[in-house]
Design a protein that fits this description.
By secondary structure, this protein is mainly alpha-helical. It contains four helices and four strands. Helix 1 crosses helix 2. The chain starts with 19 loop residues before the first helix and ends with a strand.
Amino acid sequence: MRGVPIREKNPGKSGRSNDPPVLILTSLASGPKHGYALLQDIEAFARVRLGPGTLYGAIARLEERGLIEPVGASGRRRPYRLTAAGAEALEATLTELRAIVEEGTARLAGTGTPRVVTAGGLA
């Protein structure tokens, strides 16, 4: 699943990424969590508060795509964990975001030469 985009089109007003799939996969990268624990962790590390509908909708899509999977349920709680495909997709997305951050930083400093992006990558 290399290069599978996991981000949704909903950037935050502050420019910070608040893309639910990226936030969920990032949270699960440190270990399995159930929905409420995901909400708390995401709010702690990203300062983003996801609504339950947003969270569980994104969880369903990530599970359908094989990027996360449920772990044995404990009571009403259903924990999820990152799959190998999910870790790979998160890594690819973080690499892409890192490149954007580096480009933006260079442009702000006046040292960057704008690069043209084509369908296949940088030109």
